[in-house]
Structure formats: structure tokens, C-alpha cells
Amino acid sequence: MAGILYAEIDLKKIPVDVIEEFVRNNGELGAKVKLCIAPLKKIDKFGHTHTVYLYQPKPEVGERGKPTFIGNGRMLRPSYRWQDDARQNPEPDNEP
Length: 96
Prior knowledge:
alpha+beta, four-stranded antiparallel sheet, two-stranded antiparallel sheet, 2 helices
């Protein structure tokens, strides 16, 4: 199912050793973190439908134990398709 998710993460919960630096095509230095976003079995009391945690490659799953949960989110538009939005709203919306 395609849709739009809204998520918030706690940056202080991200260990420095999982932040990967890389060089962008324009030569600037960037930093990235690999995340997983998974649906919850049921909506929690705050309306969250998804959980966000740090990505763990298979060999590390046993070593690190439980995943490091860093945030949560909710589904904003369950069946959103970009091409439908472009037809309905041809001009960009400047509001946040």
C-alpha cells in the first residue's frame, strides 16, 4: 500500500557510530542514517500507526539485541498517488 507517512525521531537516541558520512555529487559532505519504519499491529493511544528504529543488518541483529527505537509516526494519506495529486493540484503549494 502506498501512502504518506509523518514521523518524528529523537536525534539524541542515534549513536554516533551509525551515522555515515558521504560526499555528495557537488563535493559537499553529507551524513546519513539508515532507518526502518514498520507498521504497528494496532494504533496506539496517541494515534501512531508506525514505529521508527535504526536499521540492523542480519549479522548484527543478534549482536545488538533489540532494535533501537528512535521515533514513531502515523499514516497521513493511506492510498496517496503522486500522479493523482499532480493532476488535481498542478501548481505547487507554498504552505508548510
